[in-house]
């Protein structure tokens, strides 16, 4: 096994190769690992890897023979062992980030600021945060980096414990815990307890949790090296067109930072700042908190030409939760713009309280007087008879049939919903 590890690292160092699980993303001299999923068996894609001149191919397919192919009997075990080996060789500090919202944005924010402070930093790929995504990111870690930042996501009990047993991070950050993705958990307390398992890392030095709920028993569940934050009284002053000064309080202490992050991302800038300020030595707090490098389609402002006019699309189509949707609706409602249209998709994985959360959103929009609102998805559609001021569609396909009607009347369009609604396809139609 060690010989295989050494061969992989030799190729990676010589060609600056990546390890990939999907041949569609493979470049010359990359290393292909043929994993088996519910949909595909990667072992059968060896020919694609050969055509793209992979530096090494690891599969479980004894019928195939080639000088660049190594047969691995149990791919899953191999990946687990290789990740353990890489982490045993890594001398930097590992940062793990979890939470209901803002994980990817905060990861990118911390990554950017650490780089600007002249640290060498690795990070997990995009929002790959499940077990396989974590292993993929570990296998591509820069062993010479000062910090490696990983995003961890869970959808069911015991998943966090499994992730922590692989990673063993030194610094842990919980961005916040809301009712997002509660579907597979018994209740909110069960969700909280599972998220908090991130602090069970055997290498934990310090941790930080942003917790806005009144939970007096929370402090009893965490160790003394874990700090609870609950920032409040956020004041935002604009210095330039897209530049903000964020004034806020945390535990009665006043802070002032600069950022170009807006909307819900203001909070992610603050959480990033508090984490870095608390735990990272030689961090210069006067640094700016940048919005760049946020994962594609998250919070993007898209401008499109339509019938000789410009339509601005506030694109949050990647995902949604009650907490993030309420925040984004608040900021959109505050914008001093005319001809607004909201396209809102259903929110998933909310368990038995799903209907209540969707009614809450409907009531909030009513209170904002955002009358020009389209609702898409089954969870909203069942309330169409109760909220007759709005238009409801079961799917994006139904709405795209009449979308041109709305495009003629509106110039600022807000789009947000869970990924399964495929609202990005509505944006493509504009």
Q: Say which CATH homologous superfamily of the largest domain is assigned.
A: Mur-like, catalytic domain
What is the distance, rounded to the nearest whole angstrom, between the alpha carbons of the first and last residues?
53 Å
Count of distinct structural domains: 3
So what's the overall shape? globular
CATH topology of the largest domain: UDP-N-acetylmuramoyl-L-alanine:D-glutamate ligase
The CATH class name of the largest domain reads Alpha Beta
- Strand share of the residues? 15-25%
Strand order of the largest sheet: 6-7-5-8-9-10
CATH structural architecture of the largest domain: 3-Layer(aba) Sandwich
Output the radius of gyration. Answer: 23 Å
Percentage of helical residues?
A: 25-40%
Q: Count of DSSP E strands?
A: 19
Structural class, please?
alpha/beta
Which sheet architecture does the biggest sheet show? Answer: 6 strands, parallel
Count of separate DSSP helical elements: 15
Q: Mean pLDDT, as a whole number?
A: 87
Low-confidence stretches: 293-297
